[in-house]
Design a protein that fits this description.
By secondary structure, the protein is mainly beta. 0% of the residues lie in helices and 46% in strands. It is globular and about 50 Å long.
Length: 182
């Protein structure tokens, strides 16, 4: 399926790319701001305008059900990054960075305490490299532009690679990695 967040309709659509009959859109009680799907296609993470990260599960037939929510540090989350093994999810926006461990079976998104030496307010995104070992968080506020690199620990917590930003690009909103992990 192609997963589409319909902001104006407050819904999510699953579209089969081979022209099969479309499935009905799944209505939401919030506006979906950004969306991320795990590698299996069964877990869908939606940051809503309600200040929550919603975990939806797909039954593989186009039906979605919400299984968990986590409270975010703000209402305008711009970006969600997912660990390649679906163990952790990170969400960033103007209020900063949030992290959760994922237990889809039990229906839990458990907050991860991030005791970071830098403020990540005004984050414009959050991006994990394909290995899931490095997390990038760009910050942009007025004349302040920075790109921070963190190492991801086995429990999902983060270690800042360097107290100084690795770069100062202007308002990063997306990132692509050319390497793949085999």
């Amino acid at each position: 399926y192609i997963v589409v967040a319909n902001q104006k309709e407050n819904s999510i659509s699953l579209i089969e790319p081979l022209g099969a009959a479309p499935t009905p859109a799944t209505p939401l009680a919030y506006e979906p701001l950004t969306i991320k799907v795990d590698g299996t296609g069964n877990l869908i993470f939606v940051a809503g305008d309600d200040g929550k990260l919603h975990l939806l599960s797909s039954n593989g037939m186009g039906n979605l059900s919400e299984v968990a929510t986590g409270t975010l540090g703000g209402t305008n989350t711009l970006s969600v990054a997912l660990d390649p093994l679906s163990r952790f999810v990170y969400a960033a926006g103007p209020a900063g960075l949030n992290a959760f461990t994922i237990d889809a079976t039990a229906g839990n998104l458990t907050p991860i305490s991030l005791d970071l030496p830098v403020a990540l307010a005004n984050a414009t995104g959050v991006f994990l490299d394909p290995s899931g070992n490095f997390l990038y968080v760009p910050i942009s506020s007025g004349s302040m532009n920075a790109l921070y690199l963190f190492m991801v620990k086995t429990d999902g917590t983060l270690t800042l690679n360097n107290a100084q930003p690795m770069q100062s690009p202007n308002h990063v909103t997306s990132m692509v990695f050319s390497a793949t992990v085999q």
